[in-house]
């Protein structure tokens, strides 16, 4: 019993799909799509071996050429929505207890935080507004 070429292409596409899931390499997904294209050329249009390989190569290369730059651009972007302590950096707070290089208390985003001054020579008095420049553990660094 002889297996048709389109079935071999689908078996290859399945293997590439499994490898994609295991390795998370999007290039393998593009190769799998190319293999499906080659299976379609053989199964529906009766294309020969050369046509199948050409379709596989063209679809795979085009997919990689289009998807890779998009994936790199998305990987390089920072998240647009800051969460956790990153969302608190740059916000303003109100001093509740005098803040200097050794410590103090501020009200930040509705919560009371321990704080210390970024500049060791500077002190902030009660009621004064300060900017949060960093968070170290549970302490806000302010200026």
From TrEMBL:
The chain crosses the membrane at residues 6-23, 51-71. InterPro entries: Membrane_assoc_protease, NA-bd_OB-fold, NfeD-like_C. Gene3D superfamilies: Nucleic acid-binding proteins. GO terms for cellular component: plasma membrane. Signal peptide: none annotated. The keyword Flavoprotein does not apply. SUPFAM superfamilies: NfeD domain-like. It is found in: Membrane. It is a multi-pass membrane protein. Residues 85-142 form the NfeD-like C-terminal domain. Keywords: Membrane, Transmembrane, Transmembrane helix. PANTHER family: INNER MEMBRANE PROTEIN YBBJ. This is NfeD-like C-terminal domain-containing protein. It comes from Streptomyces afghaniensis 772.
């Amino acid at each position: 019993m002889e297996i048709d070429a389109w079935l071999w292409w689908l078996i290859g596409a399945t293997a590439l799909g499994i490898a994609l899931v295991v390795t998370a390499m999007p290039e393998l997904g593009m190769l799998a799509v190319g293999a499906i294209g080659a299976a379609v050329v053989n199964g529906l249009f009766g294309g020969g071996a050369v046509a199948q390989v050409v379709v596989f190569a063209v679809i795979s290369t085009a997919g990689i050429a289009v998807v890779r730059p998009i994936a790199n651009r998305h990987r390089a972007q920072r998240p647009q929505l800051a969460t956790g302590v990153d969302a608190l950096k740059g916000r303003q707070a109100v001093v509740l207890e005098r803040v200097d290089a050794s410590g103090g208390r501020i009200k930040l985003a509705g919560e009371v935080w321990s704080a210390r001054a970024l500049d060791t020579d500077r002190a902030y008095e009660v009621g004064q507004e300060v900017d949060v420049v960093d968070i170290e553990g549970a302490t806000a660094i302010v200026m």
